[in-house]
Every structure is written in C-alpha cells, then in structure tokens.
Amino acid sequence: xxxxxxxxxxxxxxxxxxxxxxxxxxxxxxxxxxxxxxxxxxxxxxxxxxxxxxxxxxxxxxxxxxxxxxxxxxxxxxxxxxxxxxxxxxxxxxxxxxxxxxxxxxxxxxxxxxxxxxxxxxxxxxxxxxxxxxxxxxxxxxxxxxxxxxxxxxxxxxxxxxxxxxxxxxxxxxxxxxxxxxxxxxxxxxxxxxxxxxxxxxxxxxxxxxxxxxxxxxxxxxxxxxxxxxxxxxxxxxxxxxxxxxxxxxxxxxxxxxxxxxxxxxxxxxxxxxxxxxxxxxxxxxxxxxx
Length: 291
Known about the structure:
The structure is a single chain. This protein is an alpha/beta fold. It folds into three domains: 11-91, Winged helix-like DNA-binding domain superfamily/Winged helix DNA-binding domain (Arc Repressor Mutant, subunit A); 97-164 and 263-285, Periplasmic binding protein-like II (D-Maltodextrin-Binding Protein, domain 2); 166-259, Periplasmic binding protein-like II (D-Maltodextrin-Binding Protein, domain 2). The chain contains ten helices and 13 strands. The protein starts with 10 loop residues before the first helix and ends in a 6-residue tail after the last helix.
C-alpha cells in the first residue's frame, strides 16, 4: 500500500506507536494508555497497513522495533513533543500549584526570604516546598523544580544558577568579645555535604592545617544556628548568610573568600512543556548574577 503524502494516519495510532516503541511492549503500552493489549496490537497493525511498512518485529516473548520503526521513532517523538509544547503555550490554564524540592537549608535561607516577592508576582499560585536530604530522594518526587548542588550540567534538565557560592569564616559577635584571642583559636564548626570544608580553606589560603572541628552538623542551617549561638567559627556560605550578617548575628572574620566552582541551581525537566508562571518564579529565585 502506497502512502498519500497529504494524508496522515490518525494521531491516536501514532501515539500508540510511540508508547509501544518507548516501552518495548504492547502490554506495557496498553497499561499506560488504558487500553487492552489487543486494542494496541490492532492500532499498530492499522498503522502499518496505512504506512505500508512493518514497524515492529513480532517475537514469541514480545516485540522489537524494525529498522523502519526505529528510524521513524525520533521523528514521531519530536512531532508529539512539539504539539505538546505548542498546546501548553497557547491553551494551558494558569498553574494553581507549583512544587519545589530543595534542601532544608536552601528552603529556609534562600527561598523563604523570597516568598513575598513570589506571592506578589504570582498571587494565584499555591507553592509547595518539599525537603530533600539526599540526591536519591529526588527520584521519589514529581516536583516542578528541584534545587540541586553541582556544576549545572544534568543531561535531562535545564538549570539556572541561584548564586555564586563563596565561603568565609564567620562567628557570633559574642564569641569575639575577647580581643586578645584570634578567631583561629576558637572551636570550628563543620557541615557534612558537598561544600568545601576547613581543610580546603586552609589549603587555598596557605594556612596551617586546621584543628579538627568540635561540632559537625548534617545541614548548613544547623551549623549556622550553632555559630549564631556562639558555639564556634563556621566556614559559611556568604549568599545564604547575608540576612544573618545584616542582622548582626554573625560577623565576617576576614575579607578573603573561597570561591567554589560548584553551587546551587534551580532545575526543571527538559521534556516538560513550559507554563506561564515558570519564568517569573525562576526570576524570583535566581536573579541574574554577574560574572
């Protein structure tokens, strides 16, 4: 059967083909689409007859894409994605709920101070914040945005940097009341995780190896609260501690800083269609930063 180039097969058949090809199974495609396996098989057969080409090779234990089916699949996926994105741009209703997954420290120290601006720009949106402790936790969520720590390169995600990470020693003014003591003589506070630590600081600043920290916490916000209480000196994130510095609960101990190549990024899936609220929300969370 020859195909009239001006006559496309029904979109439903094409959609069934895409799902079956992506999952490699008529049965799995039937489950995803809410059809019977026989209905999926029939639609694939109709499509093959319409195109005059065999898209799948039937085997005893399932199906595999034929050479022609494998060649056609990326074109089908691109076309369906384009349809989805254009429909979302033109017809999607305003988003009423947006979910952000991030560490507790980023939520408290970076996102919460910006909630007022978000509410002013997106008054109709209910914002749901999910706390993440470890990278695998992201796999259990279906968040619209994830705040991740790294270089900004994730193959399946778009990303925009929240801030350029810089670290510097800080302490409570109460801890520094004795001018005869150097801040190097006070206990150190450390935070577990991906940030640079006291050894990295000493190496970068050509200082002697530091003493072992007397306190270690598994979140930055816990370390911050300990430093504010006068428990010791913290190698702190300048962007995350800006409010504490302004309020006077922490004081920078040197103008030198340790700049990190990695940092925090707001990320979202590349394959999700855009929505009107996405751009203003990202602008609130990640204002344009200079070089």
